[in-house]
């Protein structure tokens, strides 16, 4: 298991570096601006820690890329079982210890016509049990049919390369998960969301997790370049900030990653990295 953990951490770190390089190059290409990039190492009481990168620019209003590796004793079994949606593994494990590593990426853009994106992939171990989880979803202020088709068509391709059932299953799970029940509306245009992936073929599961990360690296820059030069009004910016309020509401009320991080004594700043820099409610 230790070798698998090392491979997962190495991949998450590699992807973090690749995304940083890509985002900074986009910033320089489209704005001729060197963005502010904050780097922060953090430690978790009880075991592990992480490395957070936050980019502030004229294309990316705020983009966060966080990699973590945390481990230790589980003291809130019931709460974590519910958060991770994996009561079977929790109930079958005699040792209440965990190890988890993952990458979380969120980008909030300056332009109301460039959608926000979120991607998270993770590898979690408990005793002799392990599984992958993650997903990627797009949240536009203004829907764009071409962007939506590009996003979902490419997601289907990477899913079909690993399992023909993945796309429809994970798309439905994404639609159900990223839904604000108190407002009866979706957060965005969906994507994929999956958890408890353990097919019995670890390498295939790991390759699928890598494919989700590469998808973000390849497809999101296309969506950015398509929309970045569109002019916007003060009213359109205002609407973007109001839509961001929905994003905040979801993360604070429903998001499992937020709850998992807080329940396992993760770094609060890293956990709240996904929050947009400016938001409004009316």
Automatic annotation (TrEMBL):
| One GO molecular-function entry | coproporphyrinogen oxidase activity
Report keywords, A-Z.
Heme biosynthesis, Oxidoreductase, Porphyrin biosynthesis
Pfam families in UniProt? Coprogen_oxidas (PF01218)
Record-listed E.C. numbers: 1.3.3.3
Protein origin, superkingdom: Bacteria
Q: What does the sequence similarity comment in the record state about its family?
A: Belongs to the aerobic coproporphyrinogen-III oxidase family.
Gene3D superfamilies according to UniProt: Coproporphyrinogen III oxidase, aerobic (3.40.1500.10)
Please identify the protein, giving its name as recorded.
Answer: coproporphyrinogen oxidase
> Which biological process, per GO, is one annotated for this protein?
protoporphyrinogen IX biosynthetic process
Which cellular component appears as one GO term in the record? Answer: cytoplasm
Could you give the subunit structure recorded for this chain?
A: Homodimer.
To which species is this protein native?
Answer: Ehrlichia minasensis
Which pathway does it take part in? Porphyrin-containing compound metabolism; protoporphyrin-IX biosynthesis; protoporphyrinogen-IX from coproporphyrinogen-III (O2 route): step 1/1
């Amino acid at each position: 298991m230790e070798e698998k953990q090392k491979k997962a951490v190495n991949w998450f770190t590699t992807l973090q570096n690749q995304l940083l390089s890509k985002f900074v190059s986009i910033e320089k290409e489209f704005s001729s601006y060197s963005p502010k990039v904050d780097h922060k190492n953090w430690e978790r009481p009880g075991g592990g820690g992480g490395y957070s990168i936050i980019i502030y620019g004229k294309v990316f209003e705020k983009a966060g890329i966080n990699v973590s590796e945390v481990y230790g004793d589980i003291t809130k079994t019931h709460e974590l079982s519910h958060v991770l949606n994996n009561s079977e593994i929790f109930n079958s494990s005699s040792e209440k210890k965990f190890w988890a590593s993952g990458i979380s990426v969120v980008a909030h853009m300056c332009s109301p016509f460039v959608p926000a994106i979120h991607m998270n992939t993770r590898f979690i171990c408990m005793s002799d049990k392990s599984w992958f989880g993650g997903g990627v979803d797009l949240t536009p202020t203004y829907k764009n049919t071409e962007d939506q088709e590009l996003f979902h068509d490419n997601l289907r391709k990477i899913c079909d390369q690993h399992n023909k059932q993945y796309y429809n299953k994970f798309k439905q799970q994404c639609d159900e998960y990223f839904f604000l029940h108190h407002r009866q509306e979706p957060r965005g245009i969906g994507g994929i969301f999956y958890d408890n992936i353990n097919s019995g073929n670890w390498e295939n599961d790991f390759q699928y997790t890598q494919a989700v990360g590469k998808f973000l690296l390849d497809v999101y820059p296309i969506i950015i370049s398509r929309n970045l030069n569109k002019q916007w009004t003060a009213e359109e910016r205002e609407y973007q900030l109001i839509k961001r309020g929905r994003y905040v509401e979801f993360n604070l009320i429903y998001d499992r990653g937020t709850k998992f991080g807080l329940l396992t004594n993760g770094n609060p700043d890293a956990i709240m990295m996904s929050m947009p820099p400016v938001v409004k409610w009316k």
